[in-house]
Amino acid sequence: MEAARKEFMTWTNKKTHRLESKKRKVEALLNLYENEEKMHPPIKKKSKDPLNEEYKFLKEQLKQYVKKPEVEPFFSLKYGGKKAQLSFKDCKLDKASENIEPLFIEDIYQLLLKSVIGNMSPYPLNWARLEEPQKIAKTVLLVVEGFTKSDIIDNISELNKMTLFPHIVEIVSSNIPFSTELSTLHLVTDFHIQAKDSYSTMFPKEQEVKIDPVQSCIPPSKLHLLLSPIQMVMENYPFPANVFQYAKSDGYVFTKKSYAPVNENSPMFAVDCEMCRTAENPQELTRIAVVNEKLETIYHTLVKPEANIIDYMTRYSGITKEMLADVTIKHSDVQQMLQKLLPPDAILVGQSLNCDLHALKMIHPYVIDTSIIFNSSGIRGKKSSLKSLTYTFLNEAIQNKKDGHNPVEDSIAAMKLVQLKLQNGIGFGDACLVDTSEVKENASESNSIQASSDVTNVAKGCSKPKTVLASEKDNNGFFAKLAQFSKKACLIGNETSLNHYDNNMLNENIQKLSKPNAEKIVKTTLKQIEDNNLVISHLNFDLKTDKDSLAELNNILGEVYEACVDRTMFMVLISGVDEKNFADIKSGLFMTVLKRLN
To answer: Pick from 217, 223, 186: which is nearest to 505 by CA?
Structure first.
């Protein structure tokens, strides 16, 4: 018994010893933490603010009853649109602004496409802002022919329905039917060749400015690259003030007293100018070079401005004070020399040639602009520099010197680009007509380019670039974009109006409905709004023979507006011309309203 008790007591003692040892360790650890806490006291948590807690509670309750408002589509004008805006009040008071800078059909094209396919439109809307375009339910466009801007302003008191439209802007009406432009605006087209007299009303009759293509004129030819009159207006080329009221050409002279009809054999001359800034003109001529099709320099001179030079712009122009010190050639001397050098059917070539002609203060009808016929972006209106185009398509480097540009070098580059285009087709170098990958592939295979007929075919070994004219099938136009996004459109009008639409530009999503008169056109329009994403209706009036036409137009505006559903983009184009006369470029109006029912 004694031995068992002794063994039991021994086991108990050991257990007690272990517990005491653990206790000492815990006490030591606790002391360590307490000392650490004394040295670095913990940051006390802020006590909860009852008022703040109550606010959070109420806010959470409010969320259950208040839904986030849905973002609605919204239309407004940007700076460019405001400069073209016509005040309805001013029209009533006969105070129409004389400082308006009008828009063009291209601007309408941008808005029309964006209102139908939303932000998927590849074209930037430069003059207006259209927010949440994908939430627009319908788009309706009335194309009204037979009235000019003046007709509307002079009779504004009879058109009370115009107050429905918060945005009224002035446009430059083309001498090309709207339907033709809508179908082909994204392309390099030949409609100015088909309408051989398209130049005739843009210049004095005695100058005989016109196209005279021979029967064997097969694209691509020089004629297919010429800018049409409306393109020249859009690109700010000098125009006679009596033809285009907004032309800034006071003191300008023609390159010839009279012209010969231009044809595919007319000679080309590349022109490039360098400018400085004077006290009177931000772009004053200081140097010019002219190169012929053989890449020979036929004219090259420095020019001494009469006004005081305040900036030689040496970085770009290469002109210094020392270079002009002994120069005696004046601006007028250059004008006279060009008038002697250029034949009456000369075609001028250049990069953004409008700037050079303004610097020269000269007007010329036949021009090819490399910044327009070449397009690397795939977006009409977005231009590449001459340096970029030359490197991409000619595999040559220009404008790399620190002492500024050389007009001879730039003229030669522009001429080579045009010759290359003529060798390879209208689609060559135009990302709007061919795949960008194809353009790059063509460029990478190009060798040094020889003059005239010795130009190397850079498309060798590649698929043939697509040449697109107004009469050929195209899958990248306005209506093709609609079909791409499964949008339906209906075109309504009389037979004459609808015939201006190129059937090759249409597709199965586009319906054409021919109606004989305005009454039936309007009735059909009202019926088709529900079943289509876009309705374009053409109305033709004759103010001279029908005195009630203005009242009829006024009623139609109200009737169509009432038929439009909520979130309909309703537009009216007063084209400024009539269906029988597209010879002149006149001023028209474009009116817009985004209808909301609440």
So the answer is: 186
Q: Which residue blocks in 40-166 are alpha helix, DSSP H?
A: 50-63, 79-83, 88-92, 105-117, 149-154
d(CA 42, CA 549): 87
Q: What domain range is 158 assigned to?
A: 75-189+476-597
Q: Which of 117, 106, 72 is nearest to 534 (CA)?
A: 117
Residue 132 and residue 119 in contact, taking contact as beta carbons nearer than 8 Å: no
Phi/psi of residue 127, nearest 5 degrees: -105, -10
Q: Is the distance from CB of 309 to CB of 466 less than 8 angstroms?
A: no
Count of the separate structural domains present in the chain: 2
Q: Quick one: 275 and 419 in the same domain?
A: yes
The CATH number of the domain holding residue 397 is 3.30.420.10
**pLDDT (average), residues 424-452:** 52
pLDDT grade for 10, boundaries at 50, 70 and 90: low
**93 and 133 together in one domain:** yes
Tokens matching residue 13: 């003692």
Q: Residue 368 in contact with residue 225, Cβ under 8 Å?
A: yes
CA angle in degrees (0–180, nearest 5) for 236-239-240: 155
C-alpha closest to that of 492 among 171, 179, 186, 183: 179
pLDDT (tens digit, 9 = 90+) per residue, 65-91? 666 667 789 999 999 999 999 876 655
- pTM, to two decimals: 0.68
Torsions phi, psi for 586 (to 5 deg): -125, 175
pLDDT in tens, 374-393: 987 766 667 889 998 999 99
CA gap 576, 546 in Å, rounded: 17
The secondary structure element, H or E, covering residue 26 is helix 2-39
Strand 362-363 and strand 489-493: pairing? unpaired
